[in-house]
Each structure stands twice: as C-alpha cells, then as structure tokens.
Amino acid sequence: MKIACIFDWDGTIVDSGRTHEHTWIELAKSHNLKLIPNFFEITFGVRNIEIITEILNWTKDLTIAQQLSDEKESLYRKIISQQGVPTISGAENLLKSLNNAGILCAIGSSTPRKNLDVTVAKLGFGKYFQAYAASEDVVKSKPAPDVFLKASERLGVPPENCIVFEDSFMGLRAGVAAGMKTIAVATTNSMEALAEASQNPDCRIDIIARDLDMLSITDIVNLIK
Q1: Omega into 143 within 30° of 0, i.e. cis?
Q2: If you average pLDDT over every residue of the chain, what do you get?
Q3: Of the candidates 34, 65, 32, the residue with the CA atom closest to the CA atom of residue 48
Q4: What whole-number distance in Å separates Cα of residue 163 and Cα of residue 37?
Q5: What one-character DSSP code corresponds to residue 14?
Q6: Residues carrying an active site annotation
Q7: Is the dihedral of CA 140, 142, 145, 150 positive or negative?
Q8: How many whole angstroms separate alpha carbon 30 and alpha carbon 13?
Q9: How far apart are alpha carbons 26 and 160 in whole angstroms?
Q10: Neighbours of 120 (CB within 10 A)
Q11: Rounded to two decimals, what is the model's pTM?
C-alpha cells in the first residue's frame, strides 16, 4: 500500500513568517495601502490574490492584484536568496526518514511555484520531494482541498492514503476536506489553540506536534493502517 505525506511549506517546513509579514508591510507602504489589524494571522495560508481582493480589499481588478502579488513575492525571493530561510525544527530529519522508509512526499502550498523553487534550491531539499502543487496549480485556495488533491494526484496516491502536515487552520480544514489525515505543527498556532480547533469536525486533527522532532515514522504510518 502506497502512503504519502503532503507538506504545507511556509510555517511547516520553513520558518518564513517574519519575512512574509515584512514583505506585505513593505508592499503596503510603497503603494500607500492600508493593512488590517492582525492581517498576517488572518491571511496565513491563503493565496495572495484572495488576500488582496477579498480580505484586504485593495482592489477587485485581478490584473492589478496579480501585479501587487508578483511585486510582493519578488521582494520575498530577493530576501531569501540573500539571507536564506531557517527550517522548522526536525524538518530535514523527518524528510530523510520518510524517504528512507519509501514514503512519498510532496509539497502542497498556497505559495507561488517560483518561491518554492528558490527556497527548495537554497535548502537543497529537492531530493526529498516527488511532486509539487503550488498556487498556480489550483483555482481555489485553502480551505478548499484543491492543492492537496492536486499533490496526491501527482504522486499517484489516493487521498485516503495521504497525510497532510500543516500549521494553519485554513490548511488543516483543506486537508480534512480532501479526505486526508492531518498532522498539525504548533508553529503558527499554539498546541492549545490547535486542540480547541480540532473539536470542529471541519478541522479534525489526528496528531498535534510541537515541532517535527516529535514525530516518528511509526506515528505517521499508523494513521493510515
């Protein structure tokens, strides 16, 4: 039986939150646009186009929204290329162990593919992933299940045999909607907040981990058996 692990990227594998937040602030300043209170927490895990047009309400023009998104992500990639990006504790050890156990791995992220390419190459993590699904690959962003379903399709593993690793509530809801098991990493949200959210069937969490060091291959495989 094939088993696959599908990882969100920002906040689950890489600790990129501060850089993303900084680039949103710089983008808003350069265009004299307003950010809402707690904008980063509210929008984490959502695609830029939805953030710009539906949450921040900067514009309804999709062409302008795409230009703003491209500018923001270009700045992000520039910073990452120059400064690098830290990983979540235990990320590489877990990916190595999954690969050694013959468990397929993919990235399912709301981030643009160019961002994934830059950060994956910077970290040398390309050898750990057999498939990618990014923002350009789907029409609907999380909490819709599309990006995880696309990743499972590209791996050739049915959704019921896939395990989603996520840090955001939006992503966890997407994993549940995809019919997959979910593992929450307490990087963006606390263990307590994740446990409370898991009481909602739409955000069911099978394992809550403080970081990726806490997880064993046995824990992961037992979710599917």
Answers
A1: yes
A2: 95
A3: 65
A4: 33
A5: B
A6: 8, 10
A7: positive
A8: 30
A9: 41
A10: 19
A11: 0.88
